Amino acid sequence: ERPHKCHECGKSFIQRLDLVKHQRMHTGERPYACAECGKRFCRSSELVGHQRIHTDERPYKCSDCGKSFKRSSNLNVHQRIHTGERPYKCSYCGKSFNHSSTFLQH
Q1: How far is the C-alpha of 11 from the C-alpha of 30, rounded, in Å?
Q2: Is residue 27 a contact partner of residue 7, using CB atoms and an 8 Å limit?
């Protein structure tokens, strides 16, 4: 059961805090500010990711080649080089791509 419902869009949540975080999308509230540049974010996790711009911290390391990334999503995309995974397939011609941007350009 999801008792906490957003009155703006109807999406429901199990936890009230998840609803509060979601509602920031509608209100534009950005309570998390970067101490370095002042840029503001809806979620603390977005601030943490942003702060790596200033520190150049790269905590996500590829176990195959050692290349490091600031975001786990970038590591996941990179690893397709090693695995050969091509998750984006054109339904018209059947060609597959490892990046969504390349697929969209196709």
Answers
A1: 20
A2: no
